[in-house]
Structure formats: structure tokens, C-alpha cells
Amino acid sequence: MSPRKPREIDPEAGAEAEPEAGADAEPDGGPRISPDVGLCSACTFVRRVESRRGSVFYRCERSAEDPRYPKYPPLPVLTCPGFVVMDPAPRP
Ligand code: SF4
């Protein structure tokens, strides 16, 4: 069995889109780690960005201040020293 190839992402896609922070939280408020995205889907430093054509990208906010983190990391991210689980959504 060969290793999974990281998914290609378009670094231009996020320039005009609005992020949807917390969009990947489970309905019960817990974080969801998507097998397609990996740790980023549940990280407090991720910003989910959707292009006008409906493509979804995951931008690492740590990249703005730390060059060790790529702006758009190859997915799925399976290990990351900067991962911090995002706070769950407030419960009603
Ligand atoms: S710190 Fe790591 S896990 Fe968090 S968004 Fe950046 S690359 Fe993904």
C-alpha cells in the first residue's frame, strides 16, 4: 500500500473569501477532525476559506507570524506541533 499523497490546494483562492471560523465543529459542540483535512479541521488556528466557485481551503493563521507553518498546509495534516484544539461552540 502506497502512502497517501497530500491534496493540492490553490493558494490564490482565499484572497477574496470570508473565513468561516468554527465551521467544522460537531453539532454537540465538540471538534471534528476530518480524515480529509486532518488536524487543521479542529485547530483553533485554522480559517476555513471558501472561494466564489465553492472550493474550500484551510489557511493556517500561524503562518502569518511563524515561517515554519505554511499558509495552506498540504492536506491531510496528520501531525503538527502547533495544533491547539478549538473551543467548542457555545451551547444554548
Ligand atoms: S497550527 Fe497546524 S494544525 Fe493548526 S491550522 Fe496550522 S497547520 Fe493546521
Strand content: 5-15%
pLDDT < 50 runs, ≥5 residues: 1-25
Strands, count: 2
What sort of overall outline do the alpha carbons produce when their principal axes are compared? globular
Q: How many domains comprise the coordinates?
A: 1
Taking the alpha carbons of the first and last residues, their distance comes to 46 Å
Structural class of the helices, strands and pairings? Answer: little secondary structure
Biggest sheet layout: 2 strands, antiparallel
Estimate the mean pLDDT confidence: 77
Q: Helical amount among residues, as a percent range?
A: under 10%
What strand line-up does the widest sheet have?
1-2
Structure description:
The chain is 0% helix and 11% strand. By secondary structure, it is low in regular secondary structure. The protein has one domain (1-23, 30-84). The chain has a two-stranded antiparallel sheet with strand order 1-2. Strand 1 (46-50) and strand 2 form a beta hairpin. Mean pLDDT is 77; it is low at 1-25. The structure holds iron/sulfur cluster (SF4).
